[in-house]
Write a structure and sequence with these properties.
Largest sheet: 6 strands, mixed
Distance between the termini: 60 Å
CATH topology of the largest domain: Rossmann fold
Subunit structure: Associates with the 50S ribosomal subunit.
Mean pLDDT: 80
Strand content: 15-25%
Number of helices: 12
Low-confidence stretches: 29-36, 172-192, 226-230
Order of helices and strands: EHEEHEHEHEHEHEEHEHEHEHHEEHE
Shape: elongated
Strand order of the largest sheet: 2-3-1-4-5-6
Oligomer: single chain
Structural class: alpha/beta
InterPro entries: G_ENGA, GTP-bd, GTPase_Der, KH_dom-like, KH_dom-like_a/b, P-loop_NTPase, Small_GTP-bd
Number of domains: 3
Function: GTPase that plays an essential role in the late steps of ribosome biogenesis.
Family: Belongs to the TRAFAC class TrmE-Era-EngA-EngB-Septin-like GTPase superfamily. EngA (Der) GTPase family.
CATH superfamily of the largest domain: P-loop containing nucleotide triphosphate hydrolases
Helix content: 25-40%
Keywords: GTP-binding, Nucleotide-binding, Repeat, Ribosome biogenesis
Number of strands: 15
């Protein structure tokens, strides 16, 4: 059993730095500019062996209405309400500000217990602010330095009663010898866990409806949305269940053309999105029905395929298309000529706003994931290889010598990767390699996923050896 800890505070007090420290990885974007975090981000944290869910939130802003700041505030309010305990973070070097006092008063009226944490207490510069924090009337502040990892044991002791109250910690677990120091946790097992969730990353250009689609899939307003382009900055991961199948949805920042990116925060967001693609299993590329598969969409699709991820294309705002048949034909023709590496990629038309077609998207994701994981028996592969070589032999080598293809095996899945043993593998024409890949895709039903075919010199490694 686990419990949930929400990190809250005004902008630029070090919430994302503390979040990264607790989860042990740089998941959240950290920058000196205030207001970088907009959505709430969740992660699995370990502190002295105690495990819990930690939530990074947007900076507390005293704003109302329907502005971006007000929507961010509502996301933070939801995080605090759902948490077992909240960490109110202040900047000890800056001292207690009027905004800190305002939100301390606000949090005192809520049922969620609050631990006051004074960040940036390394050295002597934070001492005056630490003493000033007692005046907030929220008990003894916990002095920490999120950047340098100081005060983590004191934070652990402050969290312990709340973990026990939430039923996440038994009395026998309190022996200090059972807790490892930060950073000493064992690495995750390299073998994939069959019970782990399928990782589905949503990508696309800015303002095509990625977060709206994410909220529709989750069935709640979990992700910050609005008409403003570029609202999402961090890659936000949320786990949920669909018909008994566990999935992890990752909403990402929009990807613009590299030449158009000058803002430092956007550069960090783009890097965050690309890293999410690399760690994904299935990538859903969302396009706007009014501008299907423009140059930037193709650039993103090629990036996904080059990284070996499974790809599904979602055409959003399909309810606004006047001539659906013509639009679909134009899309398929463009994919055929511009993205042959993922021939047969699944395309789903939908409306993220109304939810129409969203169930079909999840079905397509699960089906594409199965294809991406498919393994083909070696015997069947080589029977197919003999047939295609007989039907269309490889071209002769220079001097008229016959080119010999001896054997094929599947080296791995995710994506399907094959090894072909042949004489002089470096001289097999690229056109013939494409012929074999297309044949594999058609014969073994591998549409829409990248296929890797590596050439190796040598005889059949499984043939009986001469004694």
């Amino acid at each position: 059993m686990t419990f949930t800890v929400a990190i809250i505070g005004r902008p630029n007090v070090g919430k994302s730095t503390l979040f990264n420290r607790l989860v042990g990885r740089k998941l959240a974007i950290v920058h000196d500019q205030p207001g970088v975090t907009r959505d709430r981000r969740e992660g699995r944290a370990t502190l002295m062996g105690m495990e819990f869910r930690v939530v990074d939130t947007a900076g507390f802003e005293d704003d109302g209405g329907d502005s971006v700041e007000a929507r961010m505030r509502r996301q933070t309010d939801q995080a605090v309400t759902a948490a077992d305990v909240a960490l109110l973070l202040i900047d000890a070097r800056a001292g207690v500000t009027p905004l800190d006092r305002h939100f301390a008063d606000y949090l005192r009226r809520l049922p969620t217990p609050v631990i006051l944490v004074a960040n940036k207490c390394e050295g002597k510069a934070g001492a005056p602010g630490l003493y000033e924090a007692y005046g907030l009337g929220m008990g003894e502040p916990v002095p920490v330095s999120a950047e340098h990892g100081e005060g983590m044991y004191e934070l652990f002791e402050a969290l312990m009663p709340h973990a026990k109250a939430a039923g996440a910690l038994d009395d026998e677990d309190e022996d200090e010898d059972d807790f490892a120091p930060p950073g000493d946790e064992e690495a995750e097992d390299a073998e994939p866990d069959p019970g782990r969730p399928l990782t589905m990353v949503i990508v696309g250009r800015p303002n095509v409806g990625k977060s709206t689609l994410g909220n529709q899939l989750l069935g709640q307003d979990r992700l910050l949305t609005g008409p403003e382009a570029g609202l999402t900055r961090d890659a936000i991961a949320v786990e949920w269940e669909h018909k008994g199948r566990r999935l992890k949805l990752v909403d990402t920042a929009g990807l613009r053309k590299k030449a158009q990116i000058s803002d430092a925060i956007e550069k960090l967001s783009v890097g965050n999105t690309i890293e999410s693609i690399r760690m994904s299993e299935v990538v859903v590329l969302v396009m706007d029905a009014a501008a299907i598969l423009d140059k930037q969409d193709l650039t993103i699709a090629r990036l996904v395929v080059d990284e070996g991820r499974a790809l599904v294309i979602a055409i959003n705002k399909w309810d606004m298309v006047d001539d659906p048949q013509t639009a679909l034909k134009r899309l398929r023709d463009r994919l055929e000529t511009s993205l042959p590496q993922a021939k047969g990629v699944t395309t789903v038309t939908l409306s993220a706003l109304t939810g129409r077609g969203v169930d079909r998207l999840i079905d397509a994701v699960l089906e594409t994931w199965d294809t991406w994981n498919r393994r083909i028996p070696t015997a069947g592969l080589n029977r197919w290889l003999e047939e295609v070589i007989e039907r269309h032999p490889p071209p002769a080598l220079p001097g008229g010598r016959r080119y010999k293809i001896r054997y094929m095996t599947q080296a791995k899945a995710r994506p399907p990767t094959f090894v072909l043993f042949a004489t002089k593998p470096d001289q097999l024409p690229e056109s013939y390699i494409r012929y074999l890949i297309n044949g594999l895709r058609e014969a073994f039903k591998l549409p829409g996923v990248p296929i890797r075919l590596h050439m190796r010199a040598g005889k059949n490694p499984y043939a009986a050896k001469d004694k």
